[in-house]
Each structure stands twice: as structure tokens, then as C-alpha cells.
Amino acid sequence: MKKISIILLACLALNSYGKAPCNNGRWSEEKAKAWYAQQAWPVGVNYVTVTAINQIEMWQAESFDPQTIDMEMQRVEDLGFNTVRIFLHDLVWQVDSKGMKQRLTQFFDICEKHHLKVIVTFFTNGGKPTQPEAKMGKQPESIQGVHNSGWLQTPKAEVVNDPAQWEPLKKYVQDILKSYKNDKRVLLWCLYNEPQNFNRNADSMSLLRAVFQWAREINPSQPLTSPIWGIPAKDTALDIVSFLGENCDVMSIHCYKKPEVMEAFIKQMKRFKRPIICQEYMGRPESTFQEILPILKRENIGAISWGLTNGKCNFHVHWTSKAGDPEPTVWFHDIFRKDGSVFSQEEIDCIKKLTGKK
Fold it and tell me: What pLDDT band is residue 12 in, cutting at 50, 70 and 90?
């Protein structure tokens, strides 16, 4: 009886800590592994159209650019990649839900044409502490030398921290999930990007818990995930990491560090006994295709690098770069220049060798 009481108290404590029941609809380890075994090795890029500075400019009607997307997806296919990860924005859905889904379907059609599957991301705490206001219409111009100057945290921190403002978010997430819950072009759903990133004082634990619950209510055929942001260390948000370990169908990580750090991170993640996808890596010179991609392939870890074409987001300059800085000799992210020429032919050869394209 004493042993049973201790176990019961432990379950109650865990439930109170994570605010999630012990049986929450999560895929079993067996189901997750069977799903992953049916997939080609997921390898590809995080994608923002070269002509867009943020998620709104990518998805709103007046700046959605299917011709450029088609051209860039051809570049992705030519590398032997099979996956692209995208970021949505709830404001576009709130203003024009029907139109946004039409454009999203068009994007899926283009990807299917190029034999690509899509990872769809709803929320993100990314971006700079100072950001432009999220609004429809003309977006800010790119600033030379500044990495990601127009990217948008979504939802903004004031909304993240106020459950009274979440009802539109629930409708947005569930509408997209209902519309594509059985779409084979969707590889998986990334519900919340970087929930451990407390950008602009966003405290994401409660919203993270809520968005997983909203998604479980829809029960899509594709798995759910949210990434663990960097190898757990002394400054790790343990509540969020613990929740992700208990609720993700497929585990995902971000790692822009050296090979030995990536190796250690993978070793830790294998404790979950689930498929793993590295949703972000490749920040030269510390994290390169030549050093990291062979590790991810050897370990059968999904490999989604950051950046494709040097565009309005200026992903090719470092996070710490400043306005007016010249183009760096060694790019930080991105693979292609706007004209289709490559930053490094050595990288291209490495990628194609590992993807079987060469």
C-alpha cells in the first residue's frame, strides 16, 4: 500500500508539473518507429522564399510568390533533398483563412511536383528582441548586414503570456490541422518552434501544453513534435524539456554546434527511444554540411539545415552582424545566391553524395 501511495503521489506530481494526463494520445514508441521506417531519410532545408522577409510576406496574397517557390524547390530537388520546413503566421489566417489555405495547398502542390514533403511549423519564439509590428500589407525592407531583421515571433509574447487571448490561436491551429490531417505531403507538424527561447519575455510552457492538446483533439495522421533547443545544460528550461519528452510523437532538436556536441546531443536524445529529426543545423564555420550531415545520416537522424537562397532575410550573415556590414567571406547560412550560383561547390558535392544525387 505504501508503495502504491508513493507511485500515485509521483503521478499526481507529474500531472501537476506538466499539466498533461499520463495517457494523452501520444503515439507509442512502436507506432513512431514504424512511421519513421516508412519514410525516406528526411533531409532538406528550412525554407523562406527569397522574396520574403518574414512569414507574413511569404503567405499573404499580395506577396505570395509561387513562381519563385517553384524555381527554388527545383534547386532543393536537384540537391537530392526530400523535405522542406516552413513557418506559418496566425495573422494571415485570421485575416484570410480561406485564401491562406489555398496558398498553402498550392505550396504543397509545388512540393509534390518536386518530390518533397513538408514540415509545417505553427508558432515560433524566434526573431530578434526588437521586431517590426506584425501587420498585413507591405513589410519592412531588408537591412544590409542584419540577419533576419524582419522575422516575427508568433504569437507575440503578450499573447503567449495571456490565455484569455488564445481562442483565435486554437481556431487557427485546428483549422489547418483539420484541413491537412490526412495529407501525405505533410511529413509532420512542428507545433511550437523554440518554446525554450524566452524571447521578449515569452513564457511558453502553458501555450505549449495547450497547443499539444488542441492538436490531439484533431488527431492528425502525421506525428507531432516541438524541438528541444540546444543540448540540455545548466540554463535549460527543464519543465519544457520534460514536457516535450513526454508528449512528442517524434523527437526533434536544434544544434548549430561542432560535431562532438552534435554527437553528445544525439546520444542523449536516444534515451527517448523514438525517431529524431534535427530541424535546424548548419551555421558556418562551426556547423558545416561536410562535418554534420555524415553524422546525421549515419545515425539515421532527420537533417534539416537552415537557409536555401541568399534573400531578404539575410541568413548568410551571422546572428550578431550589424547594419552596413559587408558580405562575409564565409557565409553563416544559405546555399545559393539569387542567380543560382552556389556558395561552395565542395558543399554541393558533399550533399549530393550523401543524398544519392551524385
Answer: very low
Closest CA to 243 of 85, 24, 20: 20
Q: Is residue 3 part of a domain?
A: no
Between CA 358 and CA 170, with CA 50 as vertex, the angle to 5 degrees is 105
* Structural domain includes residue 33: no
So what's the pLDDT on residue 230? 87
Taking the CA atoms of 212, 213, 219 and 220 in sequence, report the sign of the dihedral they define.
negative
Domain that holds residue 182: 42-355
pTM: 0.93
**11 in any annotated domain:** no
User: Is the separation of the CB atoms in 291 and 246 below 8 Å?
Assistant: no
What cell does 23 get?
495517457
Three cell numbers written together for 154: 508568433
Helix (H, G, I), strand (E, B) or coil at 227: coil
1 within domain boundaries: no
Longest dimension (CA), the chain: 72
**The 117-124 sheet, strands edge to edge:** 224-225, 186-193, 117-124, 83-87, 43-46, 302-306, 276-280, 251-254, 228-229
Total domain count, the chain: 1
CA distances from 159 to 103, 185, 227 (A): 26, 31, 21
